[in-house]
Automatic annotation (TrEMBL):
This is Defensin-like protein 234. One of its GO terms (cellular component) is extracellular region. It comes from the Eukaryota. Keywords: Disulfide bond, Membrane, Secreted, Signal, Transmembrane, Transmembrane helix. The keyword Transmembrane helix applies.
Length: 89
């Protein structure tokens, strides 16, 4: 019985490894945000109490102050959050 539990645990760890590596590949292919446009990106963690502010801060950290969005919408997906942001310039 304990071998069965150990096997399930190992399979779960391997599956999580493949999922986490796939998430990194998705992050690299998300759309850039230009002036007057919109952008989306995937970040680790949750949206927090103010998802708009969380996403704006994440965009600035990753893309620089020049790419600061004006507003964002934050959607949580378990251990990650997706930011959909707009920039009016």
């Amino acid at each position: 019985m304990s071998n069965l539990i150990l096997n399930y645990f190992l399979v779960s760890c391997i599956l999580m490894f493949f999922i986490m590596n796939n998430v990194k590949d998705v992050e690299a292919n998300l759309t850039p945000m230009g002036c007057g446009g919109s952008g989306k990106d995937l970040f680790m963690g949750g949206c927090g109490p103010d998802g708009n502010k969380t996403c704006i801060n994440e965009f600035v950290k990753k893309r620089g102050e020049a790419n600061r969005p004006d507003s964002c919408k934050c959607d949580e997906f378990s251990i990650q959050h997706l930011c959909l942001c707009n920039s009016n310039c």
